[in-house]
C-alpha cells in the first residue's frame, strides 16, 4: 500500500512501505519485498492482501491472518528481538536520540494539552499510567524505549499539536514521521497497549483527513480488537485475571475505536467494520482516571461533571450514527419503508440530544456570559447532533419525489448552517476543535451545501 504523500510536507511523509508487498527503489519502480523476511499480513475477507482497505464485500467480517516465514540467519541474526505481533517484547531505541534542548518542557506541555482537550472525548490512555510511562522511558538513565511505546508517546505529541493551544508547532517537526517509523519497525504485539497505539494513530489520521492512513490503522486496530475479544462482555484471560483498571481501559479503548470506526466511515464514505449486533460489552464507568487503580475504585466525591461523561455521551451518539450509516437508500417505490427506517434513528438522535447532561447542553451554555465559558464540549455535542442529522436526511436526497428531495435538502442545509455557526464560535472563543473530524474539510463542505442546490451538490465530497 502506498500512501498519498503529495498532500503532506516532506517531513511528515507516511511510511507505509513496511506494510506493502512492494517497495519503491531509486528509479521509482515498485519492487517486491523479500519474502524471506518476517512478513505480517493482516487480511480481510474480500480485500487485497497488500491493502487493508475495503475492496470486497462491504459487509465482510474482519479477520486476522498472520503469516510468518521462518527467519534466516541473514534476515534475523541470533539475539535480535522478534517483531512478531505475538511477541512479549518489542525492539527498543534510545528515546534520548529524539530529544533536543527543549524536549522535556514542550513534551510536558503537549501531554497536558492532550489530556485536557483530547482525552475527555477519546479516553484511550489512562493518564497516571501514561505519565509513569514517560518517567520510565525518558527520565530513567540508560533506559531504551520500545518502539510501540515510542509510537504512543509521539502520537500524544502529534495529536496535541493539532490543537490551537499547543505552543511551539515547530518543536517536533518529525513527530508524525517518528511514530509512523516506530509502528512500521515493529508490528505491535497482542496487547491492549498495542491497541491503544493503533487507535491513537487512527484518530490522528482522521483529524488530518488522511484517508489511506485512517483506513490502514483503523483496520489494524479492529483486527487486534477482535483478537482480544474486546467486543464481548468482560473479556479476559483465565490465566491472567484482569484488574479493575484493565477492565475499564478495555471498555474505554473499544468504545473509542467503535466511535472512530463510525466517524471514519461517515467521513470517507466507507462501510463500518464493527458490527453492533456482535457487541455485548458495556460502556465504561463514569469515573475519571485518578480514581481508578489496579486494586479498584478509590472513594470520590459526587460530581456529574466528570471528564468521562463527555466520552460516554459521544459513545452513545456514535451508536445512533452507526444505525444511520447502516441504512441503504431505498427506491421511490419503497419510500414509505424508507420513511419508517429514518424515523427510528431520528427519534433516537433527538432523545440523545435531549438527555445530554446539563454541562454538555448548549442551551445551558448560551445563557452564560462568554467570559464564563470554559469548555467547548457543548458546542461539539451540538455539532455531532447536526452532523448525524445531516446523514439521516442524506438518505432521501436523490430518491423519491421532488418535493420530498427538496424537503430533505432543506434539512441538510439547515444542519450545515448550524455547523458553520458553531465552528465560528470556536474561533470567537479561542477554543480548539478537538474532534474526530477535519475542521477545514467539514467547514468547506458545509459552505458548499449553503451555496448549492440539491441537483448540483456532490454529496460524496
TrEMBL record:
What are the boundaries of the region Disordered? 1-39
Q: Which SMART domains does the protein's record reference?
A: Fungal_trans
GO BP annotation list:
DNA-templated transcription
Q: Does the keyword Repeat apply?
A: no
Q: Which superkingdom is the protein from?
A: Eukaryota
GO molecular-function terms, A-Z: DNA binding; DNA-binding transcription factor activity; zinc ion binding
Which InterPro entries does the record associate with it?
AtrR-like, XnlR_reg_dom
Which part of the chain is the Xylanolytic transcriptional activator regulatory domain?
A: 214-290
Instruction: Enumerate the Pfam families for this protein.
Output: Fungal_trans (PF04082)
Question: Which controlled-vocabulary keywords does the entry list?
Answer: Nucleus
Cited CDD domains = fungal_TF_MHR
What name is this protein filed under? Xylanolytic transcriptional activator regulatory domain-containing protein
Query: Origin organism of this chain?
Result: Gibberella zeae (Wheat head blight fungus)
Amino acid at each position: 500500500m502506498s500512501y498519498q504523500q503529495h498532500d503532506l510536507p516532506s517531513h511528515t511523509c507516511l511510511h507505509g512501505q513496511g506494510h506493502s508487498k512492494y517497495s519503491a527503489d531509486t528509479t521509482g519502480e515498485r519492487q517486491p519485498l523479500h519474502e524471506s523476511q518476517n512478513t505480517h499480513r493482516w487480511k480481510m475477507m474480500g480485500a487485497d492482501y497488500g491493502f487493508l482497505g475495503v475492496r470486497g464485500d462491504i459487509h465482510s467480517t474482519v479477520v486476522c491472518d498472520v503469516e510468518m516465514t521462518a527467519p534466516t540467519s541473514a534476515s534475523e541474526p541470533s539475539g535480535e528481538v522478534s517483531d512478531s505481533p505475538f511477541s512479549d517484547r518489542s525492539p527498543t531505541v534510545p528515546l534520548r536520540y529524539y530529544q533536543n534542548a527543549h524536549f522535556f518542557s514542550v513534551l510536558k506541555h503537549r501531554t497536558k494539552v492532550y489530556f485536557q482537550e483530547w482525552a475527555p472525548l477519546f479516553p484511550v490512555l489512562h493518564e497516571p499510567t501514561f505519565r509513569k510511562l514517560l518517567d520510565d522511558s525518558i527520565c530513567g538513565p540508560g533506559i531504551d524505549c520500545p518502539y510501540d511505546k515510542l509510537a504512543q508517546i509521539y502520537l500524544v505529541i502529534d495529536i496535541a499539536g493539532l490543537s490551537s493551544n499547543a505552543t511551539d508547532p515547530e518543536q517536533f517537526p518529525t513527530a508524525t514521521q517518528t511514530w509512523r517509523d516506530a509502528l512500521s519497525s515493529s508490528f505491535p504485539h497482542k496487547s491492549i497497549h498495542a491497541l491503544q497505539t493503533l487507535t491513537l494513530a487512527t484518530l490522528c489520521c482522521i483529524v488530518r483527513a488522511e484517508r489511506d492512513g485512517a483506513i490502514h490503522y483503523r483496520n489494524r486496530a479492529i483486527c487486534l480488537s477482535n483478537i482480544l475479544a474486546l467486543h464481548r462482555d468482560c473479556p479476559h484471560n483465565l490465566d491472567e485475571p484482569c484488574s479493575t483498571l484493565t477492565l475499564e481501559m478495555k471498555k474505554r479503548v473499544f468504545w473509542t475505536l467503535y466511535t472512530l470506526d463510525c466517524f471514519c466511515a461517515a467521513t470517507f464514505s466507507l462501510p463500518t467494520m464493527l458490527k453492533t449486533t456482535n457487541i455485548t460489552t458495556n460502556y465504561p464507568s463514569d469515573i475519571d482516571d485518578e480514581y481508578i487503580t489496579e486494586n479498584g475504585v478509590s472513594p470520590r466525591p459526587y460530581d456529574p461533571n466528570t471528564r468521562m461523561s463527555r466520552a460516554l455521551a459521544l459513545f452513545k451518539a456514535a451508536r445512533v450514527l452507526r444505525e444511520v450509516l447502516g441504512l441503504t437508500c431505498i427506491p421511490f417505490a419503497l419510500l414509505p419503508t424508507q420513511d419508517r427506517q429514518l424515523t427510528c434513528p431520528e427519534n433516537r438522535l433527538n432523545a440523545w440530544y435531549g438527555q445530554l447532561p446539563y454541562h454538555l447542553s448548549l442551551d445551558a451554555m448560551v445563557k452564560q456570559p462568554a467570559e464564563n465559558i470554559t469548555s467547548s464540549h457543548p458546542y461539539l455535542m451540538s455539532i455531532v447532533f447536526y452532523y448525524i442529522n445531516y446523514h439521516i436526511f442524506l438518505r432521501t436526497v436523490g430518491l423519491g419525489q421532488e418535493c420530498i428531495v427538496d424537503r430533505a435538502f432543506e434539512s441538510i442545509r439547515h444542519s450545515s448552517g448550524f455547523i458553520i455557526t458553531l465552528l465560528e464560535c470556536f474561533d470567537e472563543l479561542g477554543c480548539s476543535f478537538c474532534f474526530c473530524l477535519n475542521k477545514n474539510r467539514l467547514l468547506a463542505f458545509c459552505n458548499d451545501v449553503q451555496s448549492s442546490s440539491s441537483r448540483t451538490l456532490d454529496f460524496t465530497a
